[in-house]
Amino acid sequence: MHIHPLERKWIYLVLVVIGLFLAAIFYTALVRNIHPPSHLETIDSASLHLSKEFAEDKLGVWTEPDGTIKVTVVAARYGFYPREIQLPAGTPVTFRIASADVLHGIHIPMTNMGTMVVPGYVSEITTTFPKPGEYPMLCNEYCGLGHDHMWSKVTVVAKDSWPAAPGTATIGR
Question: Ranges for the Cytochrome oxidase subunit II copper A binding domain (predicted)?
């Protein structure tokens, strides 16, 4: 079997590139300790509105007894529910998001808040909003003809203006 010298060079080049990609994967996994999610939380998208956490009257911002802030959001064609969320600045906030229908993405510009919302799974992300202001929460994954209307508003207020006491619900309840 004869392989032309130019083809042999391309084969070597492809093997080197594949080796570099594999080395990058192993480096991030072993040295940087970056792994895909392992403890996936599943949920039935068809009965999402009947669940304890994602029922319509449970959506919005909750201040837990230990002082942590949790936001439950449902992404559905064509909006995020609740439509308006108020949060304190400089405080870690955990978002728990589920999709009622198709694949969605959540992105809040000028923050590190961004995640995919896959039907049948609960997405969880924790972020801190450093300064007060209004932030749009946008869908960054095309989800149908009304995709451009899929948004919500996050209003971040100064920590001393935050109205919630531990164990209480705030906006969206």
Answer: 64-168
